[in-house]
Amino acid sequence: MVQDKTISSRIFDFVNYTLLLIIGLVTILPFLHVIAGSFTTVTELAQKQFVLFPTVWSLDAYKYIFSTNTVFKSLGVSVGVTFFGTLFSMLLTCLMAYGLSRRDLDGRNFIMFMVLFTMLFSGGMIPTFLVVKEMGLIDSYAALIVPSAINAFNLIIMRNFFQNLPEGLEESAKIDGAGDWGILVRIVIPLSMPAIATISLFYAVTYWNTYMQAILYLNDAAKWPVQVILRQIVILASGLAADTSGMEDIVRPPEQTVKMAVIVVATLPILCVYPFLQKHFAKGALLGSIKG
Amino acid sequence: MSETAVRAGMGKGAKTKPDSGRMRRIWKNRAIYLMIVPGFLYFLIFKYIPMSGLIIAFQDYQAYLGVMDSPWVGLKHFERLFTEPMFFTILRNTLLLFFMNLLFYFPVPIILALMLNEVRREVFKRFIQTLVYIPHFMSWVIIVSISFVMLSMDRGIINELLVMAGFDKINFLMSSDWFRPMYIVQVIWREAGWGTIIYLAAMAAIDPGLYEASRIDGASRFRQMWHITLPSIRSVIVVLLILKIGDVLELGFEHIYLLLNSMNRDVAEIFDTYVYTAGLKQGQFSFSTAVGFFKSLIGLILVMLANWLAKKAGEEGIY
User: Where are the bilayer-spanning segments (chain B) (predicted)?
Assistant: First the structure.
């Protein structure tokens, strides 16, 4: 494209770049502040109003939160739920998406409508709770996974991806005598690894962030994932929340540094997978499919 | 169209005996149906059975009697809802938060996408995108927790800065006045960056020739944005607006529930939080289901209305 070199255009660029830089910094500043705060001492945080760089560095907050089992255990729960949940969700999503990607399937439109309608209307919290209860899932880890196993959006993205694979490949595999399962496992899945990786990461992030499900379906505090523990320590312990169940564990309000350390622990895994997520959606691979 | 062509090609006996052709096709695809079954069961059990469970809104549901044997009470729970003094507070709160969302949040991703679209240096653009997408992947618990730590009266950085600048501390977290601004800022912080993705994709599809031509005509960068970029993404904006209106009553239960406390309940209580408290905390299953039903129904009607209006205005709509 020919560059526009007029003065007004240059001023425009300068202002635009500056504003974007400010917006970008403001977006991540809170995260950086919390990370920095978690690595200092209580007195340092109290005496100096630093935003990013403390003068005294300390691991006290981390020693404190790992001195008891609570945070450690909840991290274990979250890791387990994220791992098995992602596996389970991908299995169901890929199978159903591949089935729905087959154009010669009778009833395909009906099932697609059934899926799409759930995006516009739902039974709501209480009827869903009653179903989960009837199935005996209350207070089981499965309650964090099974009731939200398929995300309709992810399903549609996968289906569109499968649908856009060249049809000739399947045809030739059929001529070579491959069955439907053989085609799925040996041809479609290997060709779809970028999409599978992306959707897996989306599911993994959702499972790591799972909170509402735990509040609704798990009464047993020993089974809570890290997000619920984070809420207990940061929000409930401030004495500010709507209800105060489970408050007994906390003797005194934790210090700011401790709260910050728990936030960092709950955030870190996401920041670790973020570069991989970024790589995929930067390619724009997902975008076309969302619209389709 | 291609679908019918494929179908016609598939069933050989389709012309004479359409039914036997269809049956043969279904039998041939039995493996495919088997693949769909687990997902189909998921939607049936966790989406459609709860929908049918909405009938308990017309009953006095008792856990030991079950859905089948609980007594029918007609519209009793709906009548109670409309006479409940809390109802108008909740309705007002829900609608106000929705309009604030529409007014203050909805345009932000569009403006941000317009700004990003003007960036010619790819590296800089990707750097900014990387930064602004991050909060979307954080749970509401993390977003609200960070806000709490920063807004706290007890050494929160924002209040420390206010004091340094010579102002009084503000108890943001326990205040009715600050609840709505805090809610909107958090929504913008978490979602505005991610919201640009779909607009940027639409902008990438605009013919560069349009910009060339306008430049030769002497159009400034602002005029190009206004007369080329914006009109080109109009249909995308309309679709997202319809979807947003469909979400009118889905303001994010998780988010608001985390912010809710006894001091801001008068402005923060919305349908979802009310359903949760009345239903799961107090065990009024039927009444809270009626409240949820009312909410979902309004949402569905609004999205259909918005879609109809968009079609009237010559846009494509979402269905």
Answer: 32-58, 95-116, 128-151, 192-213, 290-310
